[in-house]
Design brief:
mainly beta; 4-stranded antiparallel beta sheet
């Protein structure tokens, strides 16, 4: 099942995450072709990606990972529009790791900052990050 989806409408690229196989997928919407990668170092379904957001200024896709496969706690995996991993943002504590509702990423591309839910389990806090 698909957990997250974001689209680069300028270049017609869609990015999705899937639950069971802990992958991130990239689709060219014009040619209807695509490919998938297992999230970096992921070994099980707990490390699947959730929310996907797109930064149209810097042309980057952000994939939330409630249970990190690249560090402790939670992570955000950052990909370019070619499906290449750019960086792993580690050390988050997403507030929803045991909830059905997944993490939400909000981006401010003009100053390369973002925000995610947590660490309060009542989802009353946010954590900021830069990229």
């Amino acid at each position: 099942s698909i957990n997250g989806l974001a689209v680069d409408s300028e270049d017609d690229i869609a990015c999705t995450t899937t639950e069971v196989d802990f992958r991130v997928e990239f689709y060219n919407l014009k040619t209807q072709t695509g490919f998938a990668h297992v999230l970096p170092n992921a070994t099980n379904q707990l490390q699947s990606g959730t929310d996907v957001e797109y930064d149209p200024v810097n042309k980057l896709f952000f994939v939330a990972q409630s249970v990190s496969s690249t560090g402790s706690g939670s992570s955000i995996q950052v990909y370019n529009t070619h499906g290449q991993l750019v960086e792993s943002l580690n050390g988050f504590h997403f507030s929803n790791t045991d909830n059905v509702v997944f993490t939400h990423i909000a981006l401010n591309p003009s100053n390369r900052t973002g925000y995610v839910d947590g660490p309060s389990s009542g989802v009353t806090d946010i954590q900021s990050f830069t990229y």
